[in-house]
Write a structure and sequence with these properties.
It is found in: Membrane. The protein is mainly alpha-helical. Helix content is 65%, strand content 2%. Helix 1 packs antiparallel against helix 2.
């Protein structure tokens, strides 16, 4: 988390220096005009911090697992979708990056791939329990667990996008 906090500040300074900021539509709400030039691509620091944290944890304690690698792959892949969205905004100097369909298809591809990898190559418990997986819970099975995982990943990514846009 410290890497993300420090990295975010350094990234903001660097992006500001490069003038890589958020374009705002002229026909948008008046209140949004104050956001013009706000540095974008902040997800680089968050994804980079998560990735570096995982790598450092392995160097310190040797914790690489297939599950952890698949989670990091999903985080980085979701970050790539966000980076593409922000990159289009900056390079084309338009407020609209990826269209909704492309963004959702990208996130859907990330989420479905994650669910498939987890079920096929990692020790995945498909029981839904709100305490621990070894406690009694609702057995979802592979299909319902996959739908649940996809919904959580896409919902979380969109929650981040929503709060980022406020």
């Amino acid at each position: 988390m410290a890497v993300s906090l420090i990295g975010t500040r350094l990234l903001i300074l660097w992006l500001t220096r490069l003038r890589l900021g958020q374009p705002i539509r002229d026909d948008g709400p008046e209140g949004h005009m104050t956001k013009a030039g706000t540095p974008t691509m902040g997800g680089l620091a968050i994804v980079g911090g998560a990735f570096l944290g995982y790598v450092l944890s392995d160097l310190y304690r040797g914790i690489y697992t297939r599950t952890g690698i698949f989670v990091m792959l999903a985080i980085v892949s979701g970050g790539v979708v966000g980076l593409m969205d922000d990159w289009i905004k900056v390079v084309r100097e338009r407020n609209l990056g990826l269209n909704k369909r492309a963004k959702m298809l990208g996130l859907l591809a990330v989420a479905v791939t994650f669910a498939m990898l987890m079920l096929e190559y990692a020790p995945t418990h498909t029981t839904l329990s709100f305490t621990r997986f070894d406690q009694p819970g609702l057995e979802l099975g592979a299909v319902l667990w996959s739908i649940w995982a996809v919904a959580l990943i896409i919902g979380s990514a969109n929650a981040v996008n929503l709060t980022d846009g406020l």
